[in-house]
From TrEMBL:
Keywords: Disulfide bond, FAD, Flavoprotein, Glycoprotein, Oxidoreductase, Signal. One of its GO terms (cellular component) is Golgi membrane. It comes from Pleuronectes platessa (European plaice). GO terms for biological process: protein folding. It catalyses: 2 R'C(R)SH + O2 = R'C(R)S-S(R)CR' + H2O2. This is Sulfhydryl oxidase. GO terms for molecular function: flavin-dependent sulfhydryl oxidase activity; protein disulfide isomerase activity. The keyword Ligase does not apply. The chain holds residues 19 to 548 of 666 of the full protein. Residues 378-487 form the ERV/ALR sulfhydryl oxidase domain. Residues 246-269 are annotated as: Disordered.
Length: 530
């Protein structure tokens, strides 16, 4: 069946079932299941796969209550199981209640409308159709609470926040936010109805849906939300101080372990206060310091492709780095030196000598120690270098869009997306986390060539970074103080977020405006530089 058979891959945020895994998965499961039986030769299934993946992504955090899955009936080994489950047409949607019996063949769902929003609401309905006896183990209550239950909580201390979403009776937002927060600890979400007059009176609620927040210390107040949308409510609650994503038991320990090694060296440092809406030169300089003195040091000498990649990287930074002049000077010197050498092979020690000597003799300066600020981790092994490397390339991409002629006569000017191409080559050749490099190269090989101008380059990197965030959320390398999430959050940029047909979408024009400002020269703070 070739490529067509792979409508869904392990990278998609859903479960791929087959003849031997279907029954064990859905029988007596702690969660409910929504399963699409499809056929990889059915054109409609092919067209629909994008929607199904988007749905799965949209409800990824609901998995412990209800899982989204697919099964390909066109694969020979699945013929029997599709027959056993009575599948005659493709796609067929079936759901299985939690704790289903082994004889349960699921219930067919025949919704004419297969929009993400209506399937998502169907999932809420499926959950609510459970009884007390078979309620999915990890699904919190979805019924509304009443004033009698909620008002006594006011003023009480607790070890977590309680968020009360008050909404019109037909609204799904409250239940969706409850499920969005399922993977997070430190906050409990409850819903109440706009028809509960004693509650509205007591809390002075006049608009719906709205959030009322009970803090752990007993204080309580309305929460300001820029837009009354599910994504805004969920994002705000996920970023409350102390609210944490539960770490996945699986994840990718190998790359997380590698990242840990890369980010080390920051454990005994005092905490540096910083703002999440600022970019710090100290992080960029620490990135260069680590790159030149640690990452490169694992290569005894540079030759061939490695040498070329390193030269291009140094040239790029020397032309586009918007931070301190002394750093630019050092990179220029390094670049001139590399270009003037007739050698095919340069010992690493020579690079190091030049960096150190230049600094000593002429005051050309690059901080000689790691000083993470916006990239501080809550403990050693988290954030640090990889965080600063992302930041550096975002800054360079924005700077390239602002000064497109800066790369003239460097050999890089003919590339449509020079920052991405140099980053891609650098990551592939030198970045210590091998698995990260493989993932990045895979993504780049698929779409970097389509980037036509500076704005698209900035957005490509932003989008790719968000895909990595999404993949890593809840993994071992996720710092609980800085949980990975779609970025920028509504707090940083409300106008970047919109909803279309009930699904979160980005306003890319506003994202680009935001990125230009956030990673632009005027938002670069020299605080904490040496
Ligand atoms: P980071 O993701 O490092 O982000 C740093 C800062 O950038 C954030 O604090 C935020 O201010 C800003 N930011 C966040 N998202 C965006 C965005 N979309 N656009 C612009 N700015 C943003 N780790 C793995 O375990 N597996 C991998 O496969 C992997 N691949 C990587 C590939 C590359 C090219 C790089 C540079 C790193 C990779 N990492 C990988 C490391 C991982 O992405 C993080 O850098 C690391 O876990 C530290 O995370 P952090 O919380 O500091 O945030």
């Amino acid at each position: 069946l070739g490529a067509a058979a792979r409508l869904y891959t392990e990278e998609d945020p859903l479960v791929i079932l087959g003849s031997s895994s279907l029954k064990p998965a859905v029988t007596n499961s702690s969660s409910a299941w929504l399963l699409q039986f499809y056929s990889s030769w059915c054109g409609h299934c092919v067209q629909f796969s994008g929607t199904w993946k988007s749905l799965a992504l949209d409800v990824k955090d609901w998995q412990r209550a209800i899982s989204v899955a697919v099964l390909d009936c066109a694969q020979e080994e699945n013929f029997d199981v599709c027959k056993e489950y009575g599948i005659k047409f493709y796609p067929t949607f079936k759901y299985f209640r939690a704790h289903a019996a082994a004889t349960d063949r699921g219930t067919i769902h025949r919704g004419a409308d297969r929009q993400i929003q209506s399937v998502r609401q169907l999932m809420v309905d499926i959950l609510q159709n459970h009884t007390r006896l078979d309620w999915p183990d990890h699904c919190p209550p979805l019924e509304p609470y009443s004033a009698v239950e909620l008002l006594p909580l006011l003023g009480q201390r607790s070890d977590h926040y309680t968020a009360v979403i008050t909404e019109e009776p037909g609204s799904y937002v409250g239940r969706e936010v409850i499920l969005d927060l399922l993977q997070f600890s430190g906050v409990e979400v409850k819903r109440a109805l706009s028809t509960d007059l004693p509650l509205l009176d007591a809390l002075k609620i006049t608009t719906f849906p709205s959030i009322y927040l009970l803090q752990p210390n007993g204080t309580h107040a309305h929460m300001h939300v820029e837009k009354r949308l599910r994504f805004f409510f969920s994002s705000l609650l996920k970023t409350l101080p102390g609210v944490q994503r539960r770490v996945k038991s699986h994840g990718s320990p190998s790359s997380a372990g590698q990242m840990g090694a890369l980010a080390d060296g920051q454990s005994t440092e005092p905490w540096r206060d910083f703002s999440r809406s600022t970019v710090y030169s100290a992080d960029l300089e620490s990135a260069l310091h680590y790159l030149l003195r640690v990452e490169l040091a694992t290569h005894n000498s540079l030759e061939g492709e490695e040498l070329k990649v390193f030269k291009d990287f140094v040239t790029l930074v020397s032309k586009l780095y918007p931070g301190r002049g002394s750093v630019v000077k050092l990179m220029e010197t390094l670049s001139d030196w590399l270009l003037s050498l007739p050698l095919q092979r340069i010992p690493y020690q020579a690079v190091l000598d030049l960096v150190d000597n230049k600094m000593r003799i002429s005051g050309v300066f690059l901080g000689a120690e790691l000083r993470w600020v916006g990239c501080q981790g809550s403990r050693a092994g988290l954030r640090g270098y990889p965080c600063s490397l992302w930041t550096l390339f975002h800054v360079l991409s924005v700077q390239h869009e602002a000064t497109p002629t800066a790369l003239e006569n460097t050999g890089l000017e003919s590339e449509a997306a020079p920052v991405l191409q140099v980053m891609r080559r650098y990551i592939r050749t030198f970045f210590g986390c091998e698995q990260c490099g493989r993932h990045f190269e895979q993504a780049a090989s698929l779409s970097v060539d389509a980037v036509r101008d500076g704005g698209q380059q900035v957005l490509w990197l932003w989008n790719q970074h968000n895909m990595v965030n999404e993949r890593l959320a809840g993994s071992l390398s996720d710092d609980p103080l800085f949980p990975k999430a779609a970025w920028p959050s509504p707090v940083l940029c409300a106008s970047c977020h919109e909803e279309k047909d009930g699904v979160h979408v980005w306003n890319q024009d506003n994202v680009l405006r935001f990125l230009r400002r956030h990673y632009g020269v005027s938002n670069l703070s020299p605080k904490y530089t040496l």
